[in-house]
Specification:
By secondary structure, this protein is an alpha/beta fold. It has 2 domains: 417 residues, ANL, N-terminal domain (Rossmann fold); 122 residues, ANL, C-terminal domain (GMP Synthetase, Chain A, domain 3, 2-Layer Sandwich), CATH 3.30.300. The protein is built from 19 helices and 30 strands. Helix 4 runs parallel beside helix 11. The two termini are 30 Å apart. The N terminus is likely disordered. The protein binds 5'-O-[(S)-butoxy(hydroxy)phosphoryl]adenosine (WT7). The site of 5'-O-[(S)-butoxy(hydroxy)phosphoryl]adenosine has 22 residues, from helix 11, strand 20, strand 24 and strand 25.
Length: 663
């Protein structure tokens, strides 16, 4: 294991931003002492701490008596003898409490059309779809793949699965037919919910056609039905024996549906994500522990109150769109924005215009979006946030990648008007919810640092043997105790789960996050220094280098490929591919054409987000005498730096010069 190095600026930023007194006064967790007290409670009685919160935050059908079961570690179980339903917790209980008419979702479509959806309306639609799924034969434990755009229907589909105990697997609408097929097959899905098309940035893009293609690739015999949401009215092929319209199957059903009460450990969803090796893994999340942390982190990290207008810009295809769109805000009875479009359409002021129009109070987005909008505002004065009234905002958040202090400062000043705290939330698909994050009423902020663990999360920075390193020294990030929302297993591959996250060299009981980290010498604040494995983070999206390499090598002309990341001002990291062809190394126009072809090929195999930014052709790749590709050197070349490292173990040192020149 090697520790990563910071990608941007410096991890130690002198400036600290104190907690605004006014914010702290009204906050759920309103002081450092309150935070410390929660941590002390967790320290003194770990299961007791979580059990108390689980009783407070979650409505149980059958209350639990067991809290944490470690008998089959690392396959931990939480609240295992309790039963509950997530959709009941997100909808029914608010309606029962008299909040039926409260707006749950303010939906803004790509073209600017706004619709409002109350808790009662949402509950009725979720019940109708839940009934429709049952009518189509979907049973508790069956997997349903959701391949939908950002939409109220997407949230309804997830909630409807939860209502009947079906396990959903949302696939981001940007993934290709091949990727969709792989996920459908791995999950053994019985049904797919999709849309005719998606509408983004003024353009219609196919979804149903991609489902058709995915299913025609074979291996998806488990799929009996495809439910199609009519979004654009675009023409789609219809298989009369397999496909049905969402509005038709819903209209046929009652607006009430008794929730299926499931055990706390029942799998709520699978979400595929990239690892350092092999194919994407289906991260399996449970019901009870996941819901607890989705609800609790939404409440504490975002300081969510009944009158807030919360906006998380993440797509439901990613974990952020699960925990902080589909579940967390609804579990708290909050009001949130769901946005179909993109930040740059009709212009790069879309976010700022929407914050003003909807009086958004809490705004949560990715550093990559902030950096892109900074650039846009520098070029075009009309899209600068200063043209908009952002005075409704009281809290900002970021997620997905490190935020460089320059972007942090701009976000704080231009969007937050200098008054809004910024919660830089570190977490992962596997963790289910925030792990290391400021609580905005409790922590002074240091730009670029995610500050301290969420109360109850036992995060630490350790060396290769699992020993904690002193503050100020880099190491690997681990979590030493199991937590309620943690990944339960990799779907169908428990061995891979154990090997990936509980490696023996760390003692087998520490969860290995896969990131490097360093703690500030004085404050103990954590700064994440980047992945320590072969996982790239491009615009906050996780990409496995091996996956991209396999996609490249599946092209008939490619003999060998190595993919590395290089720092990029806008996307955090950019994908850089070194390719050896089965024929002579191309140059000039031929190289440009081939690079374009290979990029499209990767988009076909995985999706446009995986397209390499740079492709360089070489006669060979730098290898050790035993044939191992020296990625370390490729990273240096990709960055445009001179190779100063020792290259004496290289079989073919001359190749370095060739690759450095190829572009
Ligand atoms: C990886 C997880 C968590 C939801 C979105 C991404 C990186 C995430 C931060 C942050 C620095 C971060 C890590 C992590 N990451 N948040 N605040 N600061 N890095 O989920 O796709 O599972 O990716 O994203 O490298 O391991 P994901």
């Amino acid at each position: 294991m090697t520790t990563g190095s910071p990608q941007h600026d410096t991890p130690h930023h002198a400036q600290t931003v104190p907690v605004p007194a006014e914010f702290a006064r009204h906050a759920h967790i309103g002081s450092r002492a309150a935070y410390d007290d929660l941590c002390a409670q967790a320290q003194a009685d770990y299961p007791g701490y979580w059990a108390g919160l689980a009783r407070e935050m979650v409505s149980w059908k059958q209350p639990f008596n067991q809290v944490l079961d470690e008998s089959n570690a690392p396959f931990y179980r939480w609240f295992a003898d309790g039963t509950l339903n997530v959709s009941y917790n997100c909808l029914d209980r608010h309606v029962e409490a008299g909040l039926g008419d409260k707006t749950a979702i303010i939906f803004e479509a790509d073209d600017g059309t706004v619709t409002r959806h109350s808790y009662k309306q949402l509950l009725e639609k979720v019940s109708q779809l839940a009934n429709a799924l049952k009518a189509q034969g979907v049973q508790k434990g069956d997997r349903v793949v959701i391949y939908l755009p950002m939409s109220v229907e997407g949230v309804i589909a997830m909630q409807a699965c939860a209502r009947i105990g079906a396990t959903h697997s949302v696939v981001f609408g940007g993934f290709s037919a091949q990727s969709l097929r792989d996920r459908v097959e791995d999950a053994g899905a019985v049904l797919i919910i999709t849309a005719d098309e998606q509408q983004r940035g003024g353009k219609s893009l196919p979804l149903k056609a991609i489902v058709d293609e995915a299913l025609s690739l074979g291996g998806c015999d488990s799929v009996r039905r495809v439910i199609v949401y009519r979004r654009t009215g675009g023409k789609v092929a219809f298989d009369a024996g397999r496909d049905v319209w969402l509005h038709e199957v819903m209209a046929a059903e009652s607006t009430t549906c008794e929730p299926e009460w499931v055990e706390a450990e029942h799998p709520l969803f699978l979400l595929y994500t990239s690892g350092s090796t092999g194919k994407p893994k289906g991260v399996q999340h449970c019901t009870g522990g996941y819901l607890l942390q989705a609800a609790l982190t939404t409440k504490w990290t975002f300081d969510l109150k009944p009158d807030d207008i919360f906006w998380c810009t993440a797509d439901i295809g990613w974990v952020t769109g699960h925990t902080y769109v589909a579940y967390g805000p609804l579990a708290n009875g909050g009001t949130q924005i769901v946005f179909e479009g993109v930040p740059t359409f009709p212009d790069a002021a879309r976010f700022w215009r929407m914050i003003e129009a909807h009086k958004v109070t809490i705004f949560y987005t990715a550093p990559t979006a902030i950096r892109a909008l900074i650039k846009a505002a520098e070029i075009t004065a009309e899209v600068h946030p200063r043209n908009f009234n952002l005075g409704s905002l009281r809290l900002l958040g970021t997620v997905g990648e490190p935020i460089n202090p320059a972007a942090w400062d701009w976000y704080h000043r231009e969007i937050g008007g200098g008054r809004c705290p910024i919660v830089d939330t570190f977490w992962q698909t596997e963790t289910g919810g925030h792990m290391i994050t400021p609580l905005p009423g409790a922590h002074a902020l240091t730009p670029g640092s995610c500050t301290l663990p969420f109360p109850g999360i036992d995060a630490a920075v350790v060396d290769e043997t699992g020993k904690e390193v002193p503050w100020g020294q880099g190491g690997v990030l681990v979590v030493r105790k199991p937590w309620p929302a943690m990944i339960r297993t990799i779907w169908g591959d428990p061995e891979r789960f154990k090997k990936s996250y509980y490696p023996a060299d760390l003692g087998g009981t520490f969860y290995l996050a896969g990131d490097g980290a360093i703690r500030d010498v004085e404050t103990g604040y954590f700064t994440i220094t980047g992945r320590i494995d072969d996982v790239l983070n491009v615009s906050g999206h996780r990409m496995g280098t091996m996956e991209i390499e396999s996609a490249l090598v599946s092209h008939p002309l490619v003999a060998e490929a190595a993919v590395v990341g290089r720092p990029d001002d806008l996307t955090g990291e950019a994908i850089c591919a070194f390719v050896v062809l089965k024929r002579a190394r191309p140059s000039g126009e031929e190289a440009r054409k081939l690079a374009a072809e290979l990029r499209n090929h990767v988009a076909q195999e995985i999706g446009p987000i995986a397209k390499p930014k740079d492709i360089r052709f070489g006669d060979n790749l730098p290898k050790t005498r035993s044939g191992k590709i020296m990625r370390r050197l490729l990273r240096v070349i990709a960055k445009g730096d001179a190779v100063t490292q020792d290259t004496s173990t290289l079989e073919n040192p001359a190749i370095l010069e060739q690759l450095a020149q190829a572009n």
